[in-house]
Amino acid sequence: MTERLLAVDDLQVSFHTRDGENQAVRGVGFHVDAGETVGIVGESGSGKSVTAKAILGLIGPPGKIVGGDIRYRGESLSGLSDKKWRSLRGNRIAMVFQDPMTSLNPVKKIGDQMTEVIRRHRGLGKQEALQEAIDKLREVGISEPERRVGQYPHEFSGGMRQRVMIAMALSCQPELLLADEPTTALDVTIQAQILDLLKEIKNKSNMAIVLITHDLGVVAQVCTRVIVMYGGMIMEEGTVEDIFYRPGHPYTQGLLRSVPKRGGGSRERLVPIEGTPPDLIDPPSGCPFIERCPHAFGKCVERPPLFELGEGHRALCWLRDGENPTSDDSLKALAGERGTSGE
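^ ABC transporter ATP-binding protein, sequence as received from the core. Prediction below:
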């Protein structure tokens, strides 16, 4: 039986601003099992990064978790003391952030930054921690690690800095790695190297990974299961095959149509999703995609549940309500469009 590592239940996160309460995450629920790689995708502002930071207890003022629960190995993370958070964060759950230049201290040597983490969590002596840092840098493909530990972040390229961040995250042998857009600022060649590195590390250690990205191509390469977010909510969840070949939500369909296809050539026409994401200070009471959805109908002013489409495949869409005959025409239209989306 697969071991449940992380469970997020009805998570709600808000940020209080001068204009009102920004409801960044609205009732998000999902799980991550030991050893699996889960992708969280969606446009900017969909709540992906806020969800990851909430898991690590990094939501600070003006933000606040206003509802729901996060459990790690069955234990609720709500109300943990600072001491318990320090023992969990960076040790059992680690995170790689989007921009390594802002995550690394520019005035401290790489080795000092790495050994500080290792000594705090693993209780090693100074020389043992330094050797562990060297070994981790070598493991992530950084040449001459004995020399590199004495250098500063500005002496590394963007791709090398991201490798350093991954090495730091792995230095305490975490069970769960949260990777927030780890390849966004890198060129295509370096992106591929970082993704290959993550896959190699996962295969060696059986570590679970939550990969947060807006790039469906990255998801296809690395993940086994996908969560699609929009407007602070989960629109769809399923395996990579479900999402790419059997998408159940019009938003997922729109994302797929806007991605270049292999062999499409320079004349390929991409179809953007018309309109803009919802205002989360005053979000729609029904489906958050209602204003942009070409298949919206009267029922969409009510918030739909997540309908089960198959084992582990769910979509938050009234088109999937088998008891709602008014959705039939729209569902047929969606099925017709879907025929070209996953190719």
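Residues 24 and 95 are 20 Å apart (CA to CA).
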